[in-house]
Amino acid sequence: MYLTMFDPSTRLAATTTLDTLETPCLILDADRMDRNITRLRNRLDGMGVSLRPHLKTAKSIDVARRVMSAPEGPATVSTLKEAEKFAADGVRDMIYAVGIAPAKLARVVELRSEGVDLVVVLDTLEQAQAVAAASRDAGMRIPAMIEIDCDGHRSGVVPADHAQLLEIGKILAAGAELRGVLTHAGDSYKGGGVAEQKRYAEAERLAVVDAGRLLRDAGLPCPVVSVGSTPTAHHAKDLTGVTEVRAGVFVFFDLVMAGIGICQVDDIALSVLATVIGHQREKGWIITDGGWMSLSRDRGTGKQAVDQGYGLVCDLEGNAYLDIIVADANQEHGIIAVRPGSDARLPDLAVGDRVRILPNHACATAAQHSVYHVVRGGSHAVETCWPRFGGW
């Protein structure tokens, strides 16, 4: 029996297929996922660095167990809810890779008191002081990593600001635990081609390696030097001085990653299954029940060379139609049309027919759903359901 809300005690009927699922729903091609994981893991193993996968996209212990190197981790999370959920399933080695808010330190302390090695991230004196105070109050040294700004994209200590870096390091070393330095090359999502991605990767590496050296030269510990983004993880040529790589969306990939050349469309493992519910033939539209509530409003390809609208449309086996996209979306309606400027033709889809829609942003689309329906390759058979969660 199929349940919209996944019940772990319930097993799918043997006849559950893509033809019988309630739509819209989230589909995961396990073959594509496994290939994506193997691709990056083999690459990093060959470079002598460990992978600390970011689980913010997956939010599923079933996916996590396939991408982590061991049941205990290591892993990266973006919310304390993720840390709590994965800890309940036995994950013990995690970095909470979002700047720590002082009010959240009580939850960090609780997890650490349960034997979870949860590390926080920060980039200000105020945060460092809050972590040191929480450490004193709890009678434990909370480990923290200093975030380094490698490209001006978002957060982090500017590498040239040696005084701030050392002051934060001294506060943590004295009152908490200085675990190391961390950065994220957010600018790599702009694309720019292979040469530019290699440049982003090297800038990312140098920023944290130099920061780590500065801390050590001042007599401060820096055991962990962590970098991470899916684009740079696939383009770095030299990871000397780096101890680990964090990446997340590589497990599933998406149209944004395809648009900047990190993967091919055929590598994208996630899709939304939708049903045709009508036509506006004079407008060149096919209407489905896959609106933005199931696809998300993310328009991440809008600034790329190829605008994929709200998603690229595929047949039921997962093969993309030429230049057929979800051109617009309302809450529960998706409008399929030919990409502007193309001379492609709409597929002949009747009311009741089904399509699969590849997401612009895997994280945003997956967040709209509570279950992965797992298939393999072009098979219509749904092998199992893996629950996923949300929240903070």
Automatic annotation (TrEMBL):
- Keyword annotations for this protein? Lyase
GO molecular function terms listed in the Swiss-Prot or TrEMBL record? D-serine ammonia-lyase activity
Stretches assigned to coiled coil: none
> What are the GO BP annotations of this UniProt entry?
D-serine catabolic process
| Start and end residues of each D-serine dehydratase-like domain | 269-376
InterPro entries in the record = Ala_racemase_N, D-amino_acid_metab_enzyme, D-ser_dehydrat-like_dom, D-ser_dehydrat-like_sf, PLP-binding_barrel
Q: Which domain of life is it from?
A: Bacteria
Query: What family does the database annotate?
Result: Belongs to the DSD1 family.
User: What is this protein called in UniProt?
Assistant: D-serine deaminase-like pyridoxal phosphate-dependent protein
Gene3D superfamilies named in the record: Alanine racemase, D-serine dehydratase-like domain
